[in-house]
Design goal:
The chain is built from 14 helices and 6 strands. With 295 residues, the protein is an alpha/beta fold. It has helices spanning 9-21, 35-46, 51-55, 76-82, 90-103, 107-116, 122-125, 149-154, 160-172, 198-215, 225-232, 238-241, 263-268, 273-289; strands spanning 133-134, 140-144, 181-184, 219-223, 246-250, 253-260. The protein has a domain at 90-289: 3-Layer(aba) Sandwich (Uracil-DNA Glycosylase, subunit E), CATH 3.40.470.10.
């Protein structure tokens, strides 16, 4: 087996990127860690002490020789305070998300509300919170599905190779990131790029709908199978949903929307680029009819 000491910095970086893309969220330590003991300590830290427990003297702690890097590792009780929050029942989390979203009166306030929201388990495994970026006054909104590994690392929607292709797609119809409002349905990357669960979708729905309500776009482009199903409420594949104008009802607004393939889909199957190009031309024609395409 090749030791990490035998790898160059570039090879180490490539190896870490490979593991992150594969969905690896934890690295093995040189010394074993008793996760069950940590979990019990977290529960004990949250559980209020009974009168009998308050009167009972604390047991003597067994002396244990510190393992390497023990000083740099927080104690289990400290991790409980700074780590993931206790699980919130799905129904309660949805109510909290709806209240936080509706309380925001601007995109800036909504960004803060999402960043401080702890009711979705996806946030605890993600590195970044992905929020809308670009020109909120453009009237043009592009919504992707969920952050990928590169998005999570960079903190920007549509990063990496799929982002480079996305930029070329926009340029082909006279647009750029700075001339649209770009966001994603889910603000946090699901571990291993898995599909969000129904409960996670319900929790995140108030946030994306509030983004749309505050931005008030005149037209929306949906990219990817998940985004199309999420807004159109249909179970067909992206090949059945793409290329057809439909309407999205958010708050008191009804907005025309068209779905197309995600740039990552096009990297995987380049033969579908001709389908995406037809969708982009239809999107461009709609922008011109609404006088939204700048010369």
């Amino acid at each position: 087996m090749i030791s990490a000491n035998d790898l160059s910095p570039a090879e180490l970086a490539a190896l870490l990127h490979f593991h992150a893309d594969a969905g690896v969220e934890w690295l093995l330590e040189e010394q074993a860690i008793d996760r069950f003991a940590e979990f019990e300590a977290m529960k004990a830290a949250r559980r209020p002490a009974t009168p009998a427990q308050q009167e009972r003297p604390a047991p003597r702690e067994r002396q244990v020789s510190p393992r390497p890097n023990a000083a740099a590792r927080p104690a289990p009780a400290e991790r409980a305070a700074s780590g993931p929050q206790p699980a919130i029942p799905d129904g309660e989390a949805v109510q909290q998300a709806r209240f936080a979203a509706e309380s925001a009166r601007s995109l800036g306030e909504l960004k803060t509300a999402i960043e401080t929201f702890n009711g979705c388990n996806l946030k605890h495994s993600a590195r970044s919170t992905i929020f809308a970026a670009g020109d909120a006054e453009s009237g043009i909104m592009v919504i992707g599905s969920a952050p990928g590994a590169e998005d999570d690392r960079e903190g920007v929607p549509f990063s990496g190779k799929s982002g480079q292709l996305f930029d070329k797609m926009l340029a082909a119809i006279g647009l750029s990131r700075s001339t649209i409002l770009l966001t994603q349905v889910i603000p946090w990357r699901p571990p291993g790029n898995r599909a969000p669960s129904a409960a996670e979708m319900d929790i995140c729905r108030p946030f994306i709908e509030r983004q749309i309500a505050l931005a008030e776009p005149k037209v929306i482009l949906l990219l990817g199978n998940f985004a199309a199903r999420f807004f159109f409420g249909e179970n067909d594949t992206i090949h059945g949903l793409r290329g057809h104008w439909k309407e999205i009802a958010v708050a008191d607004c009804v907005i025309p929307a068209i779905a197309s393939l995600h740039p990552q889909d096009l990297l995987t199957a380049p033969v579908n680029k001709r389908l995406a190009w037809n969708d982009l031309l239809a999107f461009q024609a709609k922008l011109k009819s609404l006088s939204l395409l700048r010369n």
